[in-house]
Design goal:
The complex is a heterotrimer of chains A (389), B (326) and C (175). Chain B is mainly α and 326 residues long. Chain B has 13 helices and no strands. Chain C folds into 2 domains: 31 residues; 130 residues, Alpha-Beta Plaits (2-Layer Sandwich), CATH 3.30.70.3270. Classes of the chains: A alpha+beta (389), B mainly alpha (326), C alpha+beta (175). Chains A and C meet through helix 4, helix 7, helix 8 and helix 9 of A and helix 1 of C.
Chain lengths: 389, 326, 175
């Protein structure tokens, strides 16, 4: 063996050298490095797992591979200039992040948002939520080894992206909301296509159920896998469908209604056991609820300005701090801004739901099979850029 | 002209060459078919650019694989690593020998009284190759994939054998040609008499050939590429070809055992055989593009808790009825 | 035991339903927009990189009043503007630039009145599209609607320099 060969095998990087295996009675465990390039870690998440046979003894997520300093960027850019960053934190539900940031600055500065703009925000944000859930649905099934569903999901997702393109001009990393409203009014074309999509998507949901949700193999892969107890979920600060799957109906849209969400009639789907299947069911049910919200919002869409006409030229919030939370597809998105009265925030903190949800993985995956761990990881619906920020 | 084909040695050599050509050609056709089936199920065109309707795509892929550099990972066991793809591919050629492709004696590579046994024995060698890749690659994913492959193959060979055995009971022969001859006429096809055996055989065969939903040894969402993670170029190509060749073998055996082999109206026997084999392949592909993957313990549960008891039951019933009839 | 068997049978039926669905989809036409042969139809709503707009009277002259608001608001600093006051140098271009008076500013609803009607000549209006994040803030901040989104979506280049656009030249070359 050449000297450099042994070096290659023995020396790992910072994380692998500091990984402490828990060991087993026989002492024979295998330390496996999943990621940062691995098909089921969806991006650049890295997990160091210790395997006993195929059973996971210990799992340790390693983060930071796509850290882009979004929080620091907030300190060096003006309030307006920071807007496009929000589409990149969580690219799948970009509009929720848009909303959280815009909402926080509006609250701090005291900018009023016209009713029409609020409704537009609700419609687009919910469309985006369906879009995000659809991608999760497809990717989760890809994790479980089914190839076809993701392409069916993409057919529908493409339709949503076409609709959102009409008003936002882009298809993924939206930068659509502005302080005091949105950047463009919705058109008749948008409304018609959305209505078409609503009726179309209602026919797709039963198909999804037949193809996937009712499937015996899928149920075997999800039921009783990664059971998350309410206590653990609370300890880790889990939010979103992960928490709701465990049976707590915590949804920012209902609990602390922001914008005009209190005017709509929708349910918060909850699970019972907190297993992967419950989290799956919650997300699928949420898509239907989002459809309901969009329908109601379209019906009662008020006239008026799409953006506050009396905006200051420059956004200069007064000294102070603000916290604003919205419900993203993955959970509670919170933005905390401290302003020192200048055109740039003094400090900006992004609370990403995926960060809390990811760390559940270490606990949930203990003692499960490697395949189950993949299923659990998928059911947490992680978006790595959001976790690293 | 002397009938050269009647000389056994020449017959076998011609058969082997023909089989190799058949495997190669089928590999090309099946890759194309699989990708087109996947495309159509997923509402997309599939390969389209190379040649008319993308017909030459698999040829282009094969050329690409041939042209690629062969690499082996650092610390790999060179002998095991390089011999594994050959050991995976070589026995499949033998598996084709006893399969009767048509009614004429020339369409069978080698008439063997224990033809069925030969197929089953040689198809078992594949596992050995997967085991070698797992150990030789110096890769943890390969190792896990190989471990899965071994326990899966060992488990599923039992119901497979039991299902085949019930047919052997019924016909009293292990010669595939004789088995085909015993089911002339659609009503006499064994699938109608032994539907349970057919289902068990087909499920076990899917698992034996590592096809979805039982493709655990190469479960790409868990083990990146499973046992062939470290293989590149034509070494990967050989595994790939072997996988498709084994699929043809199991489908051919299923055709011969259950679907009357080359029996059928209107056409020449050979085309009927090919048609049936391809129909079965289509079903396998259809499975692959529909279902999620089962978990490892579930896979073994299906085998030990359902397939083996059922196949034993089927065997006992078969034996009982045969005794009753005689 | 019987319960288990019943459950398994229901499960098996679910597998057949799955096959039915994919089987049906198999015979439906594909949904792919086959790019070189077909193109997507909704490019009119696409917001590509920015483009200068010409004046109504003279489409080859930019509307731009060189206020620099776009360059200031741009989060990634991809706009570069240079101009000179007309008459200050010996430039042969003596044509005056019309300054849009009384145009509504998109965000505030105020009317834009330039501080002084100094005639300026636009020399350089460069966009480094490599840095652009397509947020559209520049277009919305322009007081005179001098910038618009292009519909350029099929972009390809061999180097970075291919995406450093000279928008003034593009405007002049559009004719």
């Amino acid at each position: 063996m050449k000297p450099n060969e042994s070096k290659f095998e023995l020396n790992g990087d910072y994380y692998s050298t500091r990984f402490e295996p828990s060991g087993s009675e026989t002492g024979d465990t295998l330390i496996l490095n999943m990621g940062p390039q691995h098909p089921s870690t969806h991006g650049v998440l890295r997990i160091i797992v210790e395997l006993d046979g195929e059973y996971i003894k210990k799992a340790e997520p390693v983060l930071g591979y796509i850290h882009r300093m979004h929080e620091k960027m907030g300190e060096v850019k003006t309030y307006m200039q920071y807007l496009p960053n929000m589409g990149r934190v969580d690219y799948l539900h970009a509009l929720a992040w848009n909303w959280a940031y815009v909402g926080a600055v509006e609250k701090l500065t005291g900018i009023e948002v016209p009713q029409r703009a609020e409704y537009i925000r609700v419609i687009t944000c919910e469309l985006n939520r369906i879009c995000s859930h659809l991608l999760w649905w497809g990717a989760y099934l890809l994790d479980l080894g089914a190839f076809t569903p993701i392409l069916y999901a993409f057919v529908d997702r493409e339709k949503i992206m076409d609709i959102l393109q009409i008003v936002t001009g882009s298809r993924l990393t939206y930068c659509y909301y502005r302080f005091g409203g949105v950047s463009a009014d919705i058109t008749d074309e948008f409304i018609n296509q959305t209505k078409e999509f609503l009726t179309y998507f209602k026919t797709r949901i039963p198909m999804y159920h037949d193809l996937v949700t009712g499937n015996m193999i899928l149920r075997g892969r999800c039921e009783d896998i990664g059971v998350l107890s309410v206590e653990t979920a609370k300890q880790y600060g889990a939010t979103g469908p992960v928490l709701r799957g465990s049976g707590i109906a915590y949804d920012v849209r209902k609990v602390e209604p922001y914008s005009v969400y209190d005017k709509f009639d929708f349910k918060i789907p909850v699970g019972q056991n907190g297993d992967a299947m419950d989290r799956y069911d919650v997300r699928v049910a949420e898509m239907t609820e989002s459809l309901k919200i969009i329908e109601q919002a379209l019906e009662s869409l008020p006239d008026g300005h799409y953006i506050n006409p009396n905006l200051p030229d420059r956004i200069m919030p007064p000294k102070g701090e603000v916290y604003y939370a919205v419900e993203g597809a993955r959970g509670k998105i919170g933005i905390y801004i401290i302003s020192d009265g200048t055109a740039k925030p003094y400090r900006l903190k992004l609370r990403a739901p995926g960060f809390s949800n990811l760390h559940l993985f270490a606990e949930l995956s203990q003692g499960t099979l490697l395949s189950d761990a993949v299923s659990i990881l998928g059911s947490l619906d992680l978006v790595i850029p959001e976790i690293d920020r | 002209m002397i009938n050269f084909l009647s000389i056994p040695l020449i017959h076998i050599i011609v058969a082997l060459v023909a089989i190799l050509a058949f495997i190669g050609l089928n590999g090309v056709v099946l890759v194309y078919m699989e990708r087109k089936v996947a495309g159509f199920i997923q509402r997309r065109p599939g390969p389209y650019e190379v040649g008319p309707q993308g017909l030459l795509q698999p040829v282009a892929d094969a050329l690409k694989l041939l042209g690629k550099q062969l690499t082996s990972p650092m610390g790999a066991d060179k002998i095991l690593f390089w011999s594994a793809p050959i050991i995976s591919f070589a026995p499949v050629v033998v598996c084709f020998l006893p399969i009767p492709f048509g009614p004429s004696p020339n369409s069978t590579g080698m008439e063997l009284n224990l033809g069925l046994l030969l197929v089953l024995a040689f198809s078992g060698i594949n596992v050995f190759a997967l085991c070698m890749t797992g150990w030789g690659s110096n890769n943890k994913y390969s190792l896990l994939g190989a471990a899965r492959a071994v326990s899966q193959s060992v488990a599923y060979e039992i119901p497979l054998l039991l299902a085949v055995l019930s047919i052997a009971f019924q016909t009293g022969s292990l010669n595939l040609s004789e088995i085909v001859q015993s089911q002339q006429g659609v009503i006499h096809w064994h699938i109608f008499m032994q539907p349970l055996a057919f289902i068990i055989y087909f499920i076990s065969a899917t698992a034996e050939t590592n096809r979805a939903p039982f493709d655990l040894p190469e479960a790409e969402s868990e083990l990146t590429a499973g046992f062939h993670t470290e293989y590149s170029g034509m070494t990967f190509g050989l595994f790939f070809l072997a996988e498709y060749a084994y699929m043809i073998v199991v489908c051919s055996v299923a055709t011969a055992l259950f679907l009357g082999g080359w029996d059928g109206p209107f056409f020449d026997g050979f085309w009927w055989f090919l048609f049936k084999v391809y129909a079965l392949m289509l079903v396998l592909m259809w499975f692959r593009w529909t279902y999620p993957r089962v978990r490892f313990d579930q896979l073994l549960n299906i085998c030990w808790k359902w397939l083996i008891p059922l196949s034993v039951l089927n065997l006992i019933l078969t034996a009982f009825f045969i005794k009753l009839v005689h | 035991m019987l319960k288990d068997i019943g459950k398994t049978l229901i499960g098996l039926w679910s597998l057949i339903i799955g096959l039915k669905i994919t089987g049906k989809e198999f015979f439906k036409p594909w949904l792919t927009v086959h790019y070189p042969r077909q193109e997507v139809k909704n490019l009119n709503t696409y917001r590509g990189h920015i483009e200068l707009t010409g004046q109504e009277t003279d489409p080859w002259k930019p509307k731009c009043v060189m206020c620099g608001k776009c360059a200031e608001i741009c989060p990634s600093g991809c706009i570069h503007i240079e101009f000179h006051i007309a008459g200050e140098d010996d430039s042969s271009q003596t044509e005056k630039i019309l300054i849009g008076v009384g145009v509504e500013i998109p965000f505030s609803g105020k009317k834009f009145v330039p501080a002084a009607k100094i005639e300026r000549e636009l020399d350089i209006f460069n966009l480094n599209y490599n840095l652009c994040s397509l947020c559209g803030l520049c277009v919305q901040n322009c007081p005179v609607d001098a910038i618009k989104f292009s519909k350029d979506v099929y972009l390809a280049g061999r180097s970075r320099q291919d995406f450093e656009y000279d928008l003034l030249a593009r405007l002049k070359g559009q004719g």
